[in-house]
Amino acid sequence: MPNHVSCSDALPAATANTRMTRTSSSRDQGFLGLPKLSSRYGSLVMPLLLSVIMTCIVSLVSTLRSVGLTADLLGIWLSAWALSWLVAFPTLLVVLPLVRRLTAAIVESVETPP
Fold first, then answer.
1. Concatenated DSSP letters for the chain?
2. Facing residues of 29 across strands?
């Protein structure tokens, strides 16, 4: 009987190799292949992304409600989005510490076991 490796024997090694490759490459490259930022920028990146996404959606809904589906909707919406983002991003940076404290006062903290 010839020696052979079953699929079940080879799968864990292949999976482990794939995980190692993904981990090392994901550490080197971030979104769209750009290098990842240092973790110290997390306190700015999160509010930046949150403000971009939220103002984009809210301004689109508001603009659609105000003017409807018109030929110049895109220009009106982009103008509304830019203005709302200019207000939202600095506002998030200012109020985020307060929101974190309020959240901590409302939600139980999770204790990590030693």
1. ------HHHHHHHHHHHHHHHHHHHHHHB-GGGPBPPPGGGHHHHHHHHHHHHHHHHHHHHHHHHHH-S-TTHHHHHHHHHHHHHHHHHHHHHHHHHHHHHHHHHHSPPPPPP-
2. 35
| 17-51 confidence digits (pLDDT tens) | 444 444 445 456 888 899 999 999 999 999 999 99
35 has which bridge partners?
29
- Residue 46's pLDDT is 93
Q: At what angle do helices 42-67 and 73-106 cross, to 10 degrees?
A: 130
Mean pLDDT computed over 87-109: 96
Stretch 49-57: mean pLDDT: 97
**63 exposure class (CB count in 10 Å sphere: 0-12, 13-18, 19+):** buried
| 65 burial via Cβ count (<10 Å: 0-12, 13-18, 19+) | exposed
